[in-house]
Amino acid sequence: xxxxxxxxxxxxxxxxxxxxxxxxxxxxxxxxxxxxxxxxxxxxxxxxxxxxxxxxxxxxxxxxxxxxxxxxxxxxxxxxxxxxxxxxxxxxxxxxxxxxxxxxxxxxxxxxxxxxxxxxxxxxxxxxxxxxxxxxxxxxxxxxxxxxxxxxxxxxxxxxxxxxxxxxxxxxxxxxxxxxxxxxxxxxxxxxxxxxxxxxxxxxxxxxxxxxxxxxxxxxxxxxxx
Length: 226
Ligand code: DX5
Ligand code: ZN
Prior knowledge:
The chain has 226 residues and is of the alpha/beta class. The protein is built from 9 helices and 8 strands. The protein has a single domain (2-223), classed as Aldolase class I (TIM Barrel, Alpha-Beta Barrel). The chain has helices at 2-6, 22-31, 54-66, 84-90, 105-114, 160-170, 188-194, 203-206, 211-223, and strands spanning 9-12, 36-42, 70-76, 94-98, 118-123, 141-145, 176-180, 198-201. Helix 7 links the parallel strand 7 and strand 8 (198-201). Helix 3 (54-66) packs parallel to helix 4, helix 6 (160-170) runs parallel beside helix 7 (188-194) and helix 7 runs parallel beside helix 9. The longest helix is centred in the N-terminal third of the chain and has 13 residues, at 54-66. The two termini are 21 Å apart. The model has no long low-confidence stretch (mean pLDDT 98). The structure holds D-xylitol-5-phosphate and zinc ion. The site of zinc ion has 6 residues, from strand 2.
């Protein structure tokens, strides 16, 4: 788990997959070399959209873990502490909560780690990294949102690259950085160069035919930023 956490990884977001053949689409990216599968959980409150819950994580768990890959669960929900046990039991390896909804962020991060998963904190585009002045010592990863959360297929917010560079300087060395939203083969290299090591990619991987080829293109672009 540690080597995947520290390595450069493109994490396909199943939000843009074909849900009528979800297993096949996930198998395609695993075959192409994906070692992190990103799962977007939305509640219709914190974000306008509603997506999926622990049942889907549980259904994908044998396939993903069988390939030696991790399940990265991005909770865009209010009161995430109520659902951490269910997602951990379903097989989540990384559970990411939003800083904006956690009054007791330190407690939630400890709860995630006690459940056996790695603990991540996500920041919306308008949330300053300085809100992590204390929590940066209690998490395994920080997720920088490079779009406003809620939907796949949005355009990358250009100021996010500089925010990632500032985040890298602000965090302890052992805390990983994930970037989520509008990642493509065009910007992936620059995002890695700025300090991100997990790059979520939804529509750029699942948004057209030949998923394996699209995954490899983004992964190669990411590797060029090292
Ligand atoms: C957005 C989600 C993202 C989304 C990314 O709220 O958190 O993970 O799936 O999709 P793309 O890569 O298409 O911007
Ligand atoms: Zn996400």
